[in-house]
Design a protein that fits this description.
The C terminus is likely disordered. The chain has 388 residues and is mostly helical. The chain folds into two domains: 222 residues, Rhopdopsin 7-helix transmembrane proteins (Up-down Bundle); 147 residues, Homeodomain-like (Arc Repressor Mutant, subunit A), CATH 1.10.10.60. The chain has 16 helices and no strands. Helix 2 runs antiparallel to helix 4. The N and C termini lie far apart (96 Å).
């Protein structure tokens, strides 16, 4: 395969990814960011394919190559962050890098037409180029960081997706920045290096699209998955009994039943309630449903006033198990609270008292004192004489 053919394949794949994002019905920020990234990559391919025929005018196409590294960073945020993924400040930062790229391409076009040979302009061009290279390197590191941060607190499936992205992205950057510059002879560099760039870019595009599809179909599967228990277990027996009563009286519509099952799987089976600062909008985004539906399900079927109360009930139940387990006696109350999903000891104490009417520390002491007393009574009974 010739270099021209691989660039043509690169163009086709980039445009296909762009069209795929535009055809998504319920677009999210990540789809728009990936569309911009794919379009910019298509411009990279188009510039190289038309360089010989267009001459200096190729830089008009190059103006569209301003959403490459910065675009990939925005996509990574959209893929792996559940809240505040792509905000205005992130777009502004990426836009600054894009403006610098446009400026550099404009200078190159002026040079190609012989109108940009002044010394002050060359100095500015070198200065802008150095800043752009520095910022581009920074966003490459930030892109890799997006796949790493929160790895241990994520679900098993999301971990696989993070590893998949990080493996391909890291290999691509390493190949272009280390292997290519170290092992390619200078005389062959201009002919071989483009192969590294194009193959790396195609790999990243295909990987991102695969992860987006994976997340989409995983979301659908979560909605359709039917579990044996229709109503989630609660923190105490009373709420479970109330839930059972509610279930016996109400006829649950199919769509609400699917949502109940999906909520139970996310919050309880996958222990998402342990995630710090978990918000209802995070769950709604994962389930691809409006927030009001999640709120209504929790208030109607989960026997809780609101989302935060229900999550705190699950966290308190989890903390109760940790407090009762001897293996965790060396853990402080703060560590127990943090491990149970609370952000600090204050909210943990308040939530625990609202359920058990005592502090976590008092509950632990009480529980283990009673356990020791029971063990002591058992040993005394063992030594008691047996009446014939």
């Amino acid at each position: 395969m010739s270099l021209h053919s691989i660039y043509l394949l690169f163009l086709v794949i980039s445009l296909s990814m762009l069209i795929a994002q535009l055809m998504v019905k319920k677009k999210k920020a990540v789809h728009l960011a990936f569309a911009a990234f794919s379009g910019s990559m298509a411009m990279v391919a188009a510039q190289h394919l038309s360089a010989e025929s267009l001459g200096p005018y190729q830089y008009l196409i190059a103006l569209g190559t301003c959403v490459t590294c910065n675009g990939c960073w925005l996509v990574a945020r959209g893929l792996f962050r559940t809240q505040n993924a792509i905000q205005l400040r992130h777009i502004v930062f990426a836009g600054i890098i894009g403006i610098l790229v446009v400026f550099i391409q404009s200078i190159k076009m002026a040079d190609a037409f012989g109108a940009g040979s002044s010394t002050p302009l060359d100095t500015i061009s070198h200065f802008i180029g150095a800043i752009t290279e520095l910022l581009s390197s920074t966003v490459l590191m930030l892109t890799a960081w997006e796949a790493i941060r929160g790895f241990n607190n994520d679900t098993k499936i999301m971990r696989y997706q993070r590893m998949m992205f990080l493996g391909v992205f890291g290999s691509a950057v390493f190949a272009c920045s280390v292997i290519a510059t170290t092992f390619i002879e200078p005389s062959r560099f201009s002919n071989v290096f483009p192969w590294f760039v194009v193959v790396s870019a195609i790999s990243i595009l295909v990987t991102i699209q695969a992860i987006l599809l994976w997340q989409h179909y995983d979301s659908i599967a979560n909605k359709r998955k039917s579990l044996a228990n229709t109503i989630p277990q609660h923190c105490n027996d009373t709420s479970s009994q109330n839930a059972a009563k509610t279930n016996s009286v109400l006829t649950i519509p199919d769509d609400e039943q699917l949502l109940i099952d999906a909520l139970k799987r996310l919050l309880i089976d996958e222990k998402l309630f342990l995630q710090n600062n978990l918000k209802m909008q995070d769950i709604a985004a994962r389930l691809n449903v409006p927030e009001y539906r999640v709120s209504r399900i929790i208030r109607t079927y989960f026997e809780a006033k609101n989302f935060n109360q229900y999550v705190n009930q699950l966290r308190v139940a989890y903390a109760k198990d940790l407090l009762e387990t001897p293996d965790y006696n060396h853990w402080t109350i703060l560590v127990i609270g943090l491990e149970s999903g609370f952000a600090s000891i204050g909210p943990f104490n308040r939530a625990f008292k609202s359920v058990f009417n005592c502090s976590p520390n008092a509950y632990r002491q009480d529980f283990h004192n009673n356990s020791n007393n029971r063990n002591l009574e058992f040993k005394i009974d063992e030594k008691a004489p047996i009446n014939s």
